[in-house]
């Protein structure tokens, strides 16, 4: 059975879904956990979903993150589907520390892929099921600005500001 919880945050409700302590999905949604549940694979959806008042470790990590412990989300185990290349990108993405922003090309490079794999990096971010635990909000276009974000640019801006990252309007990611 997939367990779900919705936490109120300063940027709106955060729905989280976990199975046996491993986070399978998380995202900012006004429709509750059902939206996140529908993004799971058919095999996982077949397990059903039960809404709980306390998901445990993931909920504590979110509260700690919001209270200023910017590394709290890093310790929560996560699992999401994908090809070996996507898994490498998601692993590299999870290693980008709070307050740091990098480009899609840099993410590809950190995953051991050529910088030309920036499009694959963008695709991995777009399909990320576990925000903000897998911090796709820390990836910005190399030309500046915030770029896209599944939950909207204001949420991405808030997360980056909370983490102390430089304002994207003033930031140009250096391509080396």
Automatic annotation (TrEMBL):
Q: Does the keyword DNA repair apply?
A: yes
Q: Which residues cross the membrane?
A: none
Q: Start and end of every Methylated-DNA-[protein]-cysteine S-methyltransferase DNA binding domain?
A: 85-165
Catalytic reaction list: a 6-O-methyl-2'-deoxyguanosine in DNA + L-cysteinyl-[protein] = S-methyl-L-cysteinyl-[protein] + a 2'-deoxyguanosine in DNA; a 4-O-methyl-thymidine in DNA + L-cysteinyl-[protein] = a thymidine in DNA + S-methyl-L-cysteinyl-[protein]
Could you list this entry's UniProt keywords, alphabetically sorted: DNA damage, DNA repair, Methyltransferase, Transferase
Q: Which domain of life is it from?
A: Bacteria
Matches recorded under InterPro entries: MethylDNA_cys_MeTrfase_AS (IPR001497), MethylDNA_cys_MeTrfase_DNA-bd (IPR014048), MethylDNA_cys_MeTrfase_DNAb (IPR036217), WH-like_DNA-bd_sf (IPR036388)
Q: Which Pfam families match?
A: DNA_binding_1 (PF01035)
Looking up PANTHER family in the UniProt record yields: METHYLATED-DNA--PROTEIN-CYSTEINE METHYLTRANSFERASE
Specify the protein name.
Methylated-DNA--[protein]-cysteine S-methyltransferase
Species of the source: Streptosporangium longisporum
């Amino acid at each position: 059975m997939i367990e779900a919880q919705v936490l109120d945050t300063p940027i709106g409700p955060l729905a989280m879904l976990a199975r046996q302590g491993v986070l399978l999905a998380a995202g900012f949604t006004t429709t509750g956990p059902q939206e996140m549940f529908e993004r799971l694979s058919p095999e996982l959806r077949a397990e059903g979903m039960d809404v709980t008042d306390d998901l445990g470790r993931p909920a504590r990590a979110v509260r700690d993150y919001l209270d200023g412990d910017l590394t709290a989300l890093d310790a929560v185990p996560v699992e999401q589907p994908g090809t070996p290349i996507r898994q490498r990108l998601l692993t590299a993405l999870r290693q980008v520390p709070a307050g740091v922003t990098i480009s899609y090309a840099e993410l590809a490079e950190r995953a051991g892929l050529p910088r030309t794999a920036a499009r694959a990096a963008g695709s991995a971010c777009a399909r990320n099921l576990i925000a903000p635990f897998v911090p796709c909000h820390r990836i910005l276009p190399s030309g500046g600005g915030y770029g896209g974000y599944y939950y909207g640019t204001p949420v991405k801006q808030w997360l980056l500001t909370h983490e102390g990252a430089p304002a994207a309007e003033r930031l140009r990611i250096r391509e080396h």
